[in-house]
Amino acid sequence: MDIIIETNPVSQLRPRISGNRMYDPKKVRDYKKYIAWETKRQWKKEPLQGAVKIKIDIYRDIQKTESKKNKKLKDEGVIRPTVKSDLDNYLKAVLDAMNKIAYVDDSQIVEINARKFYSYNPRVEIKLDII
To answer: Is the four-CA dihedral 26, 31, 13, 60 of positive or negative sign?
Structure first.
């Protein structure tokens, strides 16, 4: 099953602390809510049971200040993002948001294939399978 989240990806940031309570920063919290909403809308079945394999492609926006040549190379996938944010931080936000919707718990994920790209159409593409 494929799920496409049409928005600029947001990476998981360190939690904030207020008194003895920890919480996600607003930008991350809103992003996770949007992923959960889109997953519920697109995922038309019960959460997966058992071992899960997931493929995630992260498409970041192409910066407006780039040269035309670099923009073209980024759009074609020749130049890939090697700048912040880290791939694992993008994954953490997505996987946490899909808990109890696409799978019972993200501890079921036993295999991940993840990649970062640039695109004029920023998004996150997710493919889930049971192993």
So the answer is: negative
Tens digit of each residue's pLDDT (9 = 90 or more) over 33-68:
999 999 999 998 999 999 999 999 999 999 888 899
Q: Are 118 and 74 in contact (CB under 8 A)?
A: yes
Architecture of domain 2-130: 2-Layer Sandwich (3.30)
Please give the Cα distance from 79 to 120 (Å, whole number). 14
Indicate whether this model's pTM tops 0.85: yes
Smallest Cα–Cα separation from 31: which of 12, 18, 44, 16? 12
Token reading at 62: 């192409």
